[in-house]
Design goal:
- The protein is mostly beta strands.
- 13% of the residues lie in helices and 38% in strands.
- It has two helices and 21 strands.
- A five-stranded antiparallel β-sheet has the order 1-18-17-16-15, with no helix packed on it.
- This is PEP-CTERM protein-sorting domain-containing protein.
- Keywords: Membrane, Transmembrane, Transmembrane helix.
- InterPro entries: Ice-binding_C.
C-alpha cells in the first residue's frame, strides 16, 4: 500500500483533529483577490480515498471521479452536479455510482482523450488504462514500466487545442515528478498504442493531476499549467514551453494550505478549476474566476459544400480568428489586471 495513504491519514489527523475541513486555502501572491474557492464537500456515496476527476463527455452536469484510489478495489464513479444561475457548480446531485469495473488502482489522472476514450492512471502498478465509450471495464491496459516510465505513473492529460504542443499526451510520475511526452497512435480497435515516451523535465511537490490554463486568465499572462502537488499540499502554476511542457523555473504558488491535492479538471461551462483530495477530508473544491472556455466543436455537423479546398480555407480562418480572439482577450485581461 502506498506511503501516500499513511501520509494522508497522518496529515488529516494533524490538520483537523477528529473532524472538520482538512485545509485552509490561501492563494499565491500573484493570484490573491482574483479567484475565489468553494468547497463542494464530499461526494455522496463515493468511497475514500478520492482519485482524479473529469467531466463526462457531452454532459457538463456529470463528473467522473475515482474512489478507493490506488487499490485493486478502485473504481471510477459517476455523480451529478448542481449549478446556480450563473452556471457555477454548487454541489452534488444524487449518489455516486460506479462505471462497471473501470478504475482499478486509479490515481490523479482521469481524463477523456481522443475518440472519447477514458484514460486512467494506475498507481502503484505503473500502468495506463483506456476505456472505450460504452465499455464497463478497461478496454486496454499498458505497462508503462516497460516503456521506461519511473514508478509510478500518476497522472495524464492531453494538451488542448490552441496551446503550444496541442494534441500531445503528457504524463507525470509520483513522487519523483518525472514529466513525459507520450508518442501514441490508433491501434485499430478504438484504443491507442503507446509507442514510446520521452522524459522532458522533472517537477517537484509530488505532482498529481494537472490541467492547462489559458494565458488570458488573471495572474497568468502566458499559457500555463496548474499542477496538484499532493506531497507539498499546494497547487502550482507553471508557464509552458513550445512543446506544452512546464518551465520549471517559472513555478509559482497558485494555492497553498492544502492536504492531499489529487485530481484536476476544468468545468467546460464556466472554466472553473476543480480539484479533488486524496485524504484531506476527501473533498472536491471549485476555484472560480477563470474565463469560460470556448464551446467544443460539434462532430456531427458537416459543413457544405464539404470540398477539401473549402475545408482548408475554413480551417485557416478559424485558426486565425482563434489566435486573434485570444490575443485580444489577453490584452483586455492584462489591462483589467493592471487597473
Amino acid at each position: 500500500m502506498r506511503n501516500k495513504l499513511f501520509m494522508a491519514i497522518f496529515l488529516l489527523l494533524v490538520s483537523i483533529g477528529i473532524h472538520g475541513k482538512a485545509f485552509a486555502i490561501a492563494f499565491g501572491t500573484d493570484f490573491a483577490g482574483k479567484y475565489t474557492d468553494l468547497d463542494l464537500g464530499s461526494v455522496p456515496g463515493l468511497p475514500t480515498s478520492y482519485g482524479g476527476l473529469t467531466f463526462k463527455p457531452g454532459d457538463p452536469n456529470t463528473i467522473w471521479i475515482g474512489g478507493n484510489a490506488n487499490t485493486a478495489n478502485g473504481r471510477i464513479y459517476e455523480i451529478g452536479v448542481t449549478r446556480n444561475a450563473t452556471n457555477h457548480i454548487t454541489g452534488f446531485s444524487g449518489t455516486a455510482t460506479s462505471i462497471g469495473n473501470v478504475g482499478e488502482y486509479n490515481d490523479g489522472g482521469v481524463t477523456v482523450g481522443p475518440g472519447g476514450v477514458l484514460f486512467t492512471s494506475r498507481w502503484p502498478v505503473n500502468e495506463l488504462g483506456q476505456t472505450k465509450p460504452g465499455d464497463t471495464d478497461e478496454s486496454k491496459i499498458i505497462d508503462l514500466a516497460a516503456l521506461g516510465v519511473a514508478g509510478s505513473h500518476a497522472a495524464i492529460n492531453f494538451v488542448p487545442a490552441g496551446f503550444d504542443g496541442a494534441g500531445q499526451m503528457k504524463l507525470v510520475s509520483w513522487s519523483g515528478g518525472q514529466w513525459y511526452t507520450g508518442n501514441f497512435s490508433q491501434d485499430g480497435s478504438g484504443t491507442f498504442d503507446l509507442l514510446s515516451v520521452t522524459q522532458e523535465t522533472t517537477i517537484g511537490g509530488g505532482p498529481e493531476g494537472f490541467v492547462y490554463i489559458d494565458g488570458i486568465n488573471l495572474g497568468f499572462t502566458v499559457d500555463s499549467l496548474l499542477v496538484a502537488e499532493w506531497s507539498a499540499g499546494n497547487v502550482a502554476a507553471y508557464a509552458i514551453d513550445s512543446n506544452g511542457d512546464p518551465i520549471v523555473s517559472s513555478r509559482r504558488d497558485f494555492i497553498t494550505g492544502l492536504s492531499g491535492a489529487e485530481g484536476a479538471a476544468i468545468d467546460p461551462l464556466t472554466g472553473d478549476f476543480l480539484f479533488s483530495t486524496f485524504g484531506g477530508g476527501n473533498h472536491v473544491v471549485a476555484i472560480q474566476g477563470f474565463v469560460p472556455p470556448p464551446p467544443p466543436p460539434n462532430p456531427g455537423v458537416v459543413p457544405e459544400p464539404a470540398t477539401l479546398l473549402l475545408l482548408c480555407i475554413g480551417l485557416a480562418g478559424v485558426i486565425f480568428r482563434v489566435k486573434r480572439d485570444r490575443s485580444s482577450s489577453r490584452l483586455f485581461y492584462q489591462r483589467a489586471e493592471a487597473s
